[in-house]
Every structure is written in C-alpha cells, then in structure tokens.
Amino acid sequence: MQLKQLPYELGALEPIMSGQTIDFHYGKHHRTYVNNLNNLLEQQAEFMAQGKLNKTIALSNQIKFNGGGHLNHEIFWESMCAQADSAIPDSGPLHDALVEGWGSIDGFIKMFNMRTAAIQGSGWGWLVYNKRKDALSYRTAANQDPITDVSPYVVPIIGIDVWEHAYYIDYKNARPKYLENIWRIINWQKAEERLIAARVESAAEKEAAAKQ
Ligand code: MN3
C-alpha cells in the first residue's frame, strides 16, 4: 500500500487546521500506519508460505488496526478542502438527503458534533450511505476500525477523526471546538460525489442480486 499525496498543500486548511497538525498527522501518523501495514502483510505472506497458519492468524488484529488506519485517513484527507472551496450545498442530492435525515444541514451538523464529541477515547464519526435504507445515517467507530467492519451495508461519505492527534496542536483538549470549526473545511462536493457513486453501486448490487 502507498501513502497517496495530499490533495492540497500542508497549510491549505489554515486557520481551521494548521500545517503543523497536518504535517504530523499525515507525515507521521498516517505514514506509520502504511509502513506497519506493509511490514505486517509481508510477514503474513511469509508465514503463509511456511504453512504457519497460527502465526498468520495472530497478525489479523494488527493488520485490521493499521489497515483501517490507512483506509480511514485516505477518506479523511479527501473529506476536507480549503475554506474558500468549502460550500455547504443549498440544493442537490446530498443537500436533499441530509434534509430528509435531519431536517436541515444545521440539524445534521449539530447531531454529528454532539455524537462525535461523545465518543469515548479514540475513534471516528461517520456520515454514511446506508445501502439497505437508501438513506444517509450516522455511525461511530472505535480506534481505527474501518466503518465497513462496523456495518457491511454502509459506504463512507464524510469521516472525521477524533483521535487527539487530529486536534491537539490547534485546539488542545477542546474536541467540541475542533468539531465546530471543521465544517468550514469540509469538501461537500467530494461528499456528494461519494453519495452519487454509492447509490449507483447499490443499485447495481440490487440488480445483480435480483438476477440470481
Ligand atoms: Mn488520525
């Protein structure tokens, strides 16, 4: 697995998220998940080749943690953009689905922040598309659990990291303040693209299932 380049410069999300935070978060934390994951996958392949199934299985938790960390951060970086490019939608499929779910975008953000601020310890808050309900839902995940592990029926739309390393340099221990501000750098356009793609994918899966 490779650490993708960020879709913006280190300082592009200032003053909401500092270049220093992104330098540490992307350049150290995310990079470490990728390096660990690659080493673990290599070790796992060696154990498999040696027929050591017990040792292969023993690596599963670490692979989930570091692999989840890699997946989650890839979505996180692309969930954000420069403040000047971040525009809360006033129409369109994402706007409509959020209003259907929570009455208004404001109502959605309040719900998201309240529930994400309350996550105990390290984890993530997620806006997801629920394939079974053809609707948006909110979910939380602990540690680096991939959201598709929490529920296989969801597709991530927006993911917010609430590990302390995501906000401590800029906000110290004030997680609610970090959450309040982050909506000013959310890439709503990217979120809408994900929603549209998720609906297409879900419709294709339903069609394929109906043919069986
Ligand atoms: Mn993180």
Distance between the termini: 34 Å
Structural class: mainly alpha
Query: Per DSSP, what share of the residues sits in E-state strands of 2 or more residues?
Result: 5-15%
* Ligands: manganese (III) ion
Overall helicity: 55-70%
Write the element-wise H/E pattern from the N-terminal end onward.
HHHHHEEHEHHH
Sheet of most strands: 3 strands, antiparallel
Cross-sheet strand order for the largest sheet: 2-1-3
Please, could you describe this protein's structure?
There is one protein chain. The chain is globular. Strand 1 and strand 2 (135-142) form a beta hairpin. It has 212 residues and is mostly helical. It is built from nine helices and three strands, in the order H-H-H-H-H-E-E-H-E-H-H-H. The two termini are 34 Å apart. Helix 4 (93-102) packs across helix 5. The protein has helices spanning 19-49, 53-58, 60-78, 93-102, 105-117, 147-150, 168-171, 175-182, 188-211, and strands at residues 123-130, 135-142, 154-161. Strands 2-1-3 form a three-stranded antiparallel β-sheet. Helices cover 56% and strands 11% of the residues. Manganese (III) ion is lined by residues 25, 29, 73, 161, 163, 165-166.
